[in-house]
Write a structure and sequence with these properties.
Elements: H1 2-35, H2 39-80, H3 87-137, H4 142-196, H5 202-246
Helix pairs in contact: 1-2, 1-4, 1-5, 2-3, 2-5, 3-4, 3-5, 4-5
Length: 247
């Protein structure tokens, strides 16, 4: 139970750190996207992305983690007591957590991809039209200005991609140690359950296995949040690159 309490706090702090870092990274990326001419994408994606990240983080902290706590408590009661058996309810809560994670990640990727597909095409057409207008209607220096704008946009795009890559590396750095620690604990409980089976009471063996299963779900939550943020950053980069491709 001491390990379980520490892991819950570790996951909460890690998720809060990831969400807090996204608040710092995304405005920088969005600003660089605007310098590449993707104004529509920047204005639409930033509020949607920040809302989704905040919403999903709050769901995990205020809804999913308490469900796991309740499920673990019910599982312990079922393993310890012979009269009170509520393991079916605990299994239902665990399945609800898994389904909620899958739905949340699917909605996040789907909404962001749809918004990006629509806005990147608009940005590409708008930028191409603006360049054609500058090149054709400004006398003498119109062509030079159009080429200069292309150069600036290309440099901004390189800088934006570099910032995105650094952001992904930082996200991995924030979550990698908690993931490793949680994986080691999960394996430890599974191994302890296997070793204790020949020599210990069946209730203790089942209890150790149940704690290992709980740590596995917590590991899935942490990986889900990390992957979600990595996907969000890479999709933002891809959306801007798609706008340049349309040009």
């Amino acid at each position: 139970m001491s390990n379980f309490s520490d892991i819950i706090m570790l996951i909460k702090n890690t998720i809060q750190n990831l969400v807090g870092f996204s608040y710092t990274l995304l405005p920088i990326l969005i600003t660089l996207i605007m310098t590449t001419g993707s104004i529509t994408s920047a204005s639409v994606i930033q509020p949607v992305l920040l809302f989704l990240i905040t919403f999903i983080g709050n769901i995990i902290i205020t809804f999913i983690l308490p469900l796991i706590l309740i499920s673990t408590a019910l599982s312990i009661i079922s393993k310890v007591s012979e009269k009170v058996q509520v393991d079916k309810i605990a299994k239902f809560l665990n399945n609800s957590v898994v389904w909620t994670l899958g739905i949340v990640l699917t909605v996040f990727v789907g909404v962001l991809s749809l918004e990006g597909s629509l806005t990147s095409s608009v940005d590409g057409i708008t930028a191409k039209t603006a360049k054609a207008a500058v090149s054709n209607f400004i006398p003498v220096v119109g062509k030079i200005l159009g080429d200069a704008v292309d150069t600036v946009i290309g440099c901004s795009n390189i800088l934006k991609n570099a910032v995105g890559i650094v952001g992904v590396i930082v996200i991995i750095g924030i979550c990698i140690l908690p993931i490793i620690k949680l994986s080691i604990l999960m394996l430890t409980y599974y191994i302890a359950s296997a070793i204790c089976q020949p020599i210990a009471d069946d209730k203790i063996v089942s209890l150790l296995g149940q704690v290992g299963d709980t740590f596995k779900i917590l590991l899935a939550i942490l990986i889900c949040v990390s992957v979600m943020l990595i996907i969000g950053v890479t999709l933002v980069i891809k959306i801007s690159n798609s706008g340049l491709m349309y040009r």
